[in-house]
Design goal:
The chain has 79 residues and is mostly helical. Helix content is 75%, strand content 0%.
């Protein structure tokens, strides 16, 4: 179960939420300043681009669950 115990670790939550907030700030707020250094558009990301980024991020969770299930199935049949 991927979600079990997720909210019981405050350090994990702090780091995860802090990372997300800093990424949004860097892309949306600091974009005009960091345009040349990071090669990003001065206006930041559009809402469609943010949805694509969230989709890729959520996709990694799905792929990891599939890999975990495949590993469990393989280990069931290998002595």
């Amino acid at each position: 179960q991927i979600w079990r115990g997720l909210t019981k670790n405050p350090l994990y939550l702090f780091i995860s939420i802090g990372t997300m907030v800093l990424q949004v700030i860097m892309v949306q707020v600091a974009a005009p300043v960091l345009t040349f250094a990071l090669k990003i558009h001065p206006a930041g990301l559009s809402w469609k681009q943010w949805l694509i980024c969230l989709g890729f991020g959520a996709g990694t969770l799905v792929v990891q669950q599939i890999l975990n299930r495949c590993r469990m199935l393989i280990l069931m049949f290998v002595p």
